[in-house]
Amino acid sequence: MKWLEMIKFRTSGQNLENMVDKFIKPLTKDYEGAGLISMQVYSHATLNTDLSIHLYWDTVNVSQQKTLLSSCLINVLEEFGLIHYTIWIAQKFNFESIKQGDLKNG
Fold first, then answer.
1. What's the number of domains the chain is made of?
2. Does residue 67 belong to any structural domain of this protein?
3. Percent of the chain whose pLDDT exceeds 70
4. Is residue 77 within 8 Å of 7, Cβ to Cβ?
5. What domain range includes position 16?
6. How many Cα atoms are found within 13 Å in the side-chain-facing hemisphere of 19?
7. pLDDT tens by residue, 66-83
């Protein structure tokens, strides 16, 4: 099952690029092969204080609690700012089928 952990992080006055290199990248090295498909870090388009960290998983079951990786990330980052955490489950939806007209209109 594919699912996503999303960690939104807001800081004040910190260099977010340095935080990614110093804290986020090193923590992910040990999770290859543990169901972690990929990780993407986004910065807010207009606020240079906000990051959104997306951990994409493919496992038999969806975790009902934070994974060890997200817990470690949160523990490191919460010292520097505010954290908001959520889990999302992928739905069966194919954008390509919409573009090809496979879905019926209303």
1. 1
2. yes
3. 81
4. yes
5. 2-99
6. 25
7. 988 899 899 988 888 899
Structure tokens at 80: 């520097």
CA–CA distance, 34 with 42 (Å, rounded to integer):
23
42 occurs within a structural domain: yes
- Model confidence pLDDT, tens digit, residues 7-38: 999 987 766 677 777 777 777 776 666 788 88
CA–CA dist 102, 104 (Å, integer): 7
DSSP character string of 25-80:
HHHHGGGTTTTEEEEEEEE-SS-TTEEEEEEEEE-SS--SS--HHHHHHHHHHTTT
Looking at the domain assignment, is residue 106 inside a domain? no
Which burial class, exposed, middle or buried, applies to 51 when counting CB atoms under 10 A from its CB (0-12, 13-18, 19+)? buried
Per the domain annotation, does 56 fall within a domain?
yes
